[in-house]
Design a protein that fits this description.
single chain; 178 residues; mainly beta; 3-stranded antiparallel β-sheet; 1 helix
Length: 178
């Protein structure tokens, strides 16, 4: 309990849970108190590592090569919690040690592109669309959070190592959280 009007609760979702909104049942002890319809939204994220350079089995896979880690979302509805979109941070670990610069914010390659309506196509904010993305949105990489490494002089670099990637997302904070 935080105070008389708030509690902290940890909610866990099993790996194979069906995606979509859920009701939240509130109990005081074993007595049901209330049900909040569609208070929670089960979503799934996946990470994919893409490289701009073809490598052989004996070469470094990520270190010293342009690499993008793309985080995509799977959802059936944006309500609750996803209407304003999602921001995220990518934590990178080499063994048990977080690498320098981690966590990383999503970004897009430069220069930005302009769509048919004059809007910037590339963004660092993910706006989930359960019905799917248009060609222009996929082309503009607006269907994923994108984390770029080794793509320019001042870009982030990944050293040689065996990495574990962890994505942390938040749909409520307007700026990045650290």
């Amino acid at each position: 309990m935080v105070n008389q009007t708030q509690i902290n609760a940890e909610v866990f979702v099993t790996t194979n849970a069906a995606i979509g909104p859920r009701n939240l049942r509130i109990r005081r002890g074993s007595t049901p108190v209330a049900t909040l319809p569609k208070a929670l939204n089960v979503i799934a994220f996946s990470l994919a590592v893409h490289q701009g350079a073809k490598t052989t089995d004996i070469e470094d896979r990520i270190a010293n090569h342009p690499t993008v880690v793309r985080a995509s979302i799977q959802n059936t509805t944006n309500d609750p919690g996803l209407i304003s979109g999602v921001r995220g941070l990518l934590y990178v670990f080499n063994g048990d040690t977080q690498i320098p610069g981690s966590p990383f914010e999503p970004d897009h390659p430069r220069p930005n592109l302009t769509g048919n309506s004059g809007e910037e196509l590339l963004d660092s904010f993910l706006r989930p669309k359960p019905a799917g993305y248009t060609f222009e949105e996929r082309f503009g990489l607006r269907d994923t959070l994108n984390f770029y490494f080794g793509t320019g002089q001042d870009s982030k670099q990944l050293p040689q190592g065996h990495f574990t990637f962890a994505l942390v997302v938040d749909s409520h904070l307007p700026t990045y959280f650290r």
